[in-house]
Each structure stands twice: as structure tokens, then as C-alpha cells.
Amino acid sequence: MPKMKTNRAAAKRFKRTAKGGFKSGNSFTSHRFHGKTKKQRRQLRGLSMLDKSNVKRFKKMLPAK
């Protein structure tokens, strides 16, 4: 049986954590900051964890190495 191919689009956007979760950058961070509060902008920095309801789907896209 051949190896599973990694979905390259997903590999560029999501990283797997040591415990098997996935982290990604936040949406709403590229432009139009004048409509967002300072608190929103501050909280959108950095990475956030993917919801557990999506983890099963992403494990298929990004098989373990």
C-alpha cells in the first residue's frame, strides 16, 4: 500500500503539537484594524489551537512522520 500524501496547503498553515493537537494562526489579522479594538488586536497575535471537532479531519491531511 502506498504512503499517504501530505496535503501541502494544510502543512503550510497548521502545525501538529506534541500531544497531537493542531495550532494555527488566527484569521482577521491581515488588514482593516481600525474596526477592531486594541484588545481584539492583541488577542489575535500569536497562534491558537484548532477545535477538537476538526482534529480527526486534519490528522488525515497531515499524517504523522
From TrEMBL:
<protein>
    <recommendedName>
        <fullName>Large ribosomal subunit protein bL35</fullName>
    </recommendedName>
</protein>
<keyword id="KW-0689">Ribosomal protein</keyword>
<feature type="compositionally biased region" description="Basic residues">
    <location>
        <begin position="31"/>
        <end position="43"/>
    </location>
</feature>
<dbReference type="InterPro" id="IPR021137">
    <property type="entry name" value="Ribosomal_bL35-like"/>
</dbReference>
<dbReference type="InterPro" id="IPR037229">
    <property type="entry name" value="Ribosomal_bL35_sf"/>
</dbReference>
<comment type="similarity">
    <text>Belongs to the bacterial ribosomal protein bL35 family.</text>
</comment>
<dbReference type="InterPro" id="IPR018265">
    <property type="entry name" value="Ribosomal_bL35_CS"/>
</dbReference>
<dbReference type="InterPro" id="IPR001706">
    <property type="entry name" value="Ribosomal_bL35"/>
</dbReference>
<keyword id="KW-0687">Ribonucleoprotein</keyword>
<dbReference type="GO" id="GO:0005840">
    <property type="term" value="C:ribosome"/>
</dbReference>
<feature type="region of interest" description="Disordered">
    <location>
        <begin position="1"/>
        <end position="43"/>
    </location>
</feature>
<dbReference type="Pfam" id="PF01632">
    <property type="entry name" value="Ribosomal_L35p"/>
</dbReference>
